[in-house]
Amino acid sequence: MTTLEIDRDGAGRAWESPGFLRRQFSPPTSYAQKVFDVLFGVVAPILCFVFDPIVFRSAYFGPALFPDYQAFAYLVSGIEIFVLIIWLLLSGHLPAPRLAGGVLMAGALFSGVIGMALLPFSLLGLSMGIGIFGFIPFLTALVYLRNAKSAFQLATKSSTLALGPGQPHQLITIGITRSAWAATIVGFVLALGPPAGLNFAASMFVSQAMNAVISADERQADLAIDEIQYLQFFARPQVDKLVVAYAQAKEASRKKELKRRYWKLTGTDIEERLRILAD
To answer: What pTM does this model have?
Structure first.
């Protein structure tokens, strides 16, 4: 966009106004950008998870698309939202801006991957008016990426101010560069590593317990259900295995027992869940 600016002597000069993306990454951060950050970096992701109809959990539209990644997505998003809120409130006073930048950079990558995974379904869903919500992860990725860049700029500025006169500038710069990369990598790993490890370990345990719920005798199955109760957050993708076993059972007594186990595990009717999965 070209703008004409009039000087005091009446002469005009044209200058190129920065485009949308360039404005998003150019300091200082405006009030409108902060509102945008809160809406699409905090509020929108939470609402997407709460009203998720089919991505990580399903309610009325058949099986979820990515149920095995539900816990991982929730854990990572929780970390990212928490760090983003802290950054927006205390951005100028954080003691480790590069660490925060690494976490936010991981959030940008994570949100972008979710957006790309949902893109085919989002395009198909546009005809029904709901596909537009599948593009929210791209806006969330933009929020995290812009704030990660701001964190890195703050860290660079702080490091530059810390260099006093007469100091070996080159050696100090090399040291800062190495420590900066280290802090960024640590932040990146902290955002993704613990959720991935916790999700893997809990999912393995729940998977073994669900095998007992489906195949073991009544006593062992009830013990396994009691164990899973403490890991409901990680058990949801595995629960549908019990529904599949119920659908495949031939004997009425077997169906009755599986129905009882499903009720004890979830507190809902297995027939209702079977109808949803069959849609």
So the answer is: 0.78
- pLDDT tens digits, one per residue of 129-176: 666 888 999 999 999 999 999 888 887 776 554 445 555 544 444 445
**Two tokens at 51?**
């009203």
Q: What does the pLDDT look like over 91-128, one tens digit per residue?
A: 767 778 889 999 999 999 999 999 999 998 888 877 76
In order, the DSSP letters of 44-98 are HHHHHHHT-SSSSS-SSSSS-SSGGGHHHHHHHHHHHHHHHHHHHHHGGG-S-HH
